[in-house]
């Protein structure tokens, strides 16, 4: 059975915000490359869903949240049935306590 990656609305909004920021601050080419790299990095979860470390700040939640680090970003996800659900893309340069808001 194949595991599929599903992006939540919050995570898609995060990607859009990242794209818009880098499009303005750097260039559209840089923005595309960054977002494409973030999305591509989640594809390896289809083969190894447990590859990410557990997110300690979300340990009290219903699901077991895990994360991948890609550049300055944490891609936070959980596994449910045959899906990897991407919860958010978190900029690690922020206060880590903000992760609890997801």
Verbal overview:
The chain is 31% helix and 28% strand. The chain contains 2 helices and 5 strands. α1 (9-25) packs antiparallel against α2 (28-42). β4 (73-80) and β5 (83-91) form a beta hairpin. It has helices at residues 9-25, 28-42, and strands at 4-7, 53-54, 65-70, 73-80, 83-91. Strands 1-5-4-3-2 form a 5-stranded mixed β-sheet. The chain has one domain: RelE-like (YaeB-like fold), CATH 3.30.2310.20. By secondary structure, the chain is of the alpha+beta class. The longest helix has 17 residues, at 9-25.
Helix content: 25-40%
- Summarize the main sheet: 5 strands, mixed
| Mean pLDDT over the full residue set | 94
How much strand content do the residues show?
A: 25-35%
Tell me the distance between the termini: 29 Å
What is the spatial order of strands in the main beta sheet? Answer: 1-5-4-3-2
Shape estimate: globular
Query: What is the ordering of alpha helices and beta strands?
Result: EHHEEEE
Q: What's the level 1 CATH class?
A: Alpha Beta
Ranges with pLDDT <50 over ≥5 residues? none
The CATH superfamily name is: RelE-like
Could you say which structural class the secondary elements and strand pairing correspond to? alpha+beta
Instruction: Give me the CATH fold name.
Output: YaeB-like fold
Let me know the number of strands: 5
Annotation field: number of helices: 2
CATH architecture term: 2-Layer Sandwich
Overall structural domain count? 1
